[in-house]
Amino acid sequence: MRRISRHRVSYVITHSKEEHGHLLGINSLALDTTTLNPETGKSEGILYSAGRDGVISSWDLHLPFRKNGPKNKDAQNNRDNEASEKIGDFKSNWEIDDEIDLSSQPPRNSTFRQSFRGHTDWVNDIILCHNNETLISASSDRTLKLWHPHKSNSPSTIGYHTDYIKVLSYAPGPGWVASGGFDRKIIIWDVTEFRPSSGISSINAVDQDHPKI
Fold first, then answer.
1. What whole-number distance in Å separates Cα of residue 17 and Cα of residue 107?
2. Which CATH number fits domain 26-204: 3.40.109.30, 2.130.10.10, 3.40.640.10, 3.20.20.140?
3. In this predicted model, what pLDDT tens digit does every residue of 6-60 receive, in sequence order?
4. What DSSP assignment string belongs to 3-21?
5. What CA–CA distance (Å, rounded) separates 108 from 40?
């Protein structure tokens, strides 16, 4: 009989220099409506996207955001235009500035800002904290990373789970981030010191004998 030869082929899919989108599906989004555009001095919105390609990208939206104030009580009641966002140590409501006629002054198209590649597997969740100056990412590579998107320094690894990290939550008062993973644990992290927070730092969310869902 003729022997069948087999060859193993491997390949890497990369972005072209002209394209900045994700190569695989997007798992999570985070919106920054407070950072000022250095060109205009106004809040125009930055959208962060995290994907299954292990990449976190940011995009300038070029939309006219403003903070709700007492003079805009009617606008505050209009939930169609409001974006509720956790920022720093307080919760603030932001909206599209309806005093600007977008039909006569259409906003610019969204533009690519930058991208970060610090994970080796899916990025499952991202959150913004510390007045939108810090971004936390959770990945299937079992790492929790801290990024400073407005600086050029590399990401820092806060800690690890023993299985995929799936979800994050931020407590702005104490400055904690909680992470939940497929290892059935919830870990509370002090992101200022890159360690599990003192006190309650790890919770077994499900009985160890219970099957995974």
1. 25
2. 2.130.10.10
3. 766 655 555 555 567 899 999 999 999 888 888 878 888 899 999 999 999 999 9
4. PPP-----------TT--S
5. 13
